[in-house]
Amino acid sequence: MKKVELTELFQSLEKMGLDRESVFQDQILKKLRLQWNEIVGEVFGKQSFPKSLDGKKLTVICRHSMVSQELEFQKTELLQKINRIANPISLEKIHFKTGNEFQNPRS
Asked: Reduced to 3 states, what is the DSSP secondary structure of residue 3?
């Protein structure tokens, strides 16, 4: 198996229309979804999930407005936990959204 330098990998991805930031964002979102219960706790983890990552903003879908509100109270602490995982990207905002689109990808 040929050893590929990281710069070569990113150049290949750019040729396919993917940039470095979008690759990092996709991987970080997957990692956040896998570790979501550890970040917010099992109770809130079953009632919410990270839907999307857009730049420095994470959108979290919650099953009930009460879950959105409780997570909103914990936003500062959650951002710290998330940013330990999201390195090299540093998130600045979390948007909690209550909605019908709740489909927990981990269940």
From this structure: coil
Q: Is the C-alpha dihedral spanning 84, 87, 92, 98 positive or negative?
A: negative
Residue 52: strand pairing partners: 59
CATH number at residue 61: 3.30.70
Q: What is the pTM of this model?
A: 0.78
3-state secondary structure 4-39: CCHHHHHHHHHHCCCCHHHHHHHHHHHHHHHCHHHH
**Measuring CA to CA, how many Å separate 73 from each of 55, 84, 93?**
23, 19, 13
**Residue 32 belongs to a domain:** yes
* pLDDT tens per residue, range 50-61: 999 998 999 999
Q: Residue 18, Cα to own-chain centre: how many angstroms?
A: 18
Q: Which tens digit of pLDDT belongs to each residue from 16-52?
A: 776 667 777 888 999 999 999 999 999 999 999 999 9
Is 36 within 8 Å of 70 (Cβ atoms)?
no
